[in-house]
Design brief:
With 248 residues, the protein is an alpha+beta fold. The chain is built from nine helices and eleven strands. The chain has helices at residues 2-7, 17-29, 40-46, 59-65, 71-86, 139-146, 149-159, 203-216, 242-247; strands spanning 12-15, 90-97, 104-108, 115-117, 124-126, 133-137, 163-172, 175-185, 188-195, 220-225, 238-240. The strands form three sheets. It has a six-stranded mixed sheet with strand order 1-7-8-9-10-11, with helices on both faces. Strands 3-2-6 form a three-stranded antiparallel sheet.
């Protein structure tokens, strides 16, 4: 439906090969249940700079990093974390140091045997008698987060569209415009620009995409961000800050 709607307006569609596929892959891992992004503990984890660089953590360390306290909250965090393990969003493994070359690295659980082969020097070494599990993000999930997936998927979760196109380029007459989200919601077309956070003056970019949405005849233009506040106004646009996205 959206493809036809865009084509009728004289535009051709191409998709961002990386970002769009990353985001679609993340949605498949989550079975299209995006509620985890509205969980304050897990959105805090997903914003953790070390975790987003692939650093593994023990479960207790992850819980401490998002400051989960109280029996009820701890149980809920554990239940959600088990679900994310089952969905392969978080991967279980071991952080092991090779006695031959001293390289310390993470080994996925399916790589662990009584005799481990070092990923560096390739020397075999025995599995330690005592070791804690550590968890790291699925590489696809990590890549998507670093491409700004959180605000895009939170926007989708809030819109709950019947159909949506992500990370697309619209071209006409040699000119190309980038759009994060075009969604079909209850017979209305909504175009959204999404930024987890930003630096510098973003208003010219938003003004350009807003003008494109009006030219296309979209019913609503949304700017969605995980920033705590939006320090500007954009007449005619809907602005969603962090609290709006997390409350749905």
């Amino acid at each position: 439906m959206l493809n036809e709607w865009i084509a009728e307006r004289g535009y051709q569609i191409t998709f961002s090969r990386k970002k769009g596929r990353y985001f679609q892959g993340m949605m498949r891992l989550l079975a299209d249940d995006l509620a985890v992004f509205r969980d304050p503990a897990f959105i805090k984890l997903f914003e953790d700079s070390a975790l987003r660089k692939g650093k593994p953590y023990r479960f207790q360390e992850l819980r401490a990093r998002c400051q989960v306290r109280g029996d009820t909250a701890i149980r809920a965090f554990g239940d959600r974390f088990r679900q994310l393990i089952a969905q392969a969003v978080f991967l279980r493994g071991l952080q092991l140091a090779c006695p031959a070359c001293d390289l310390e690295t993470w080994y996925a659980l399916d790589q662990v045997r009584e005799s481990i082969v070092c990923v560096g020097c390739r020397a075999p070494f025995p599995l330690p008698l005592e070791v804690d599990f550590v968890f790291r993000l699925n590489q696809l999930f990590l890549a998507g987060l670093n491409e700004g997936a959180s605000s895009v998927l939170l926007t989708l979760d809030r819109l709950a569209p019947e159909e949506a196109l992500l990370c697309l380029n619209l071209s006409r007459g040699g000119h190309v415009d980038e759009i994060d989200v075009i969604a079909w919601c209850d017979g209305r077309v909504i175009i959204a620009e999404c930024k987890d956070h930003w630096q510098g003056d973003i208003l010219p970019q938003l003004t350009r995409v807003h003008a494109l949405s009006e030219q296309l005849g979209a019913d609503q233009f949304v700017f969605a961000t995980l920033a705590e506040s939006i320090p500007f106004d954009l007449p005619g646009a809907t602005l969603w800050k962090r609290s709006d996205l997390l409350t749905g």
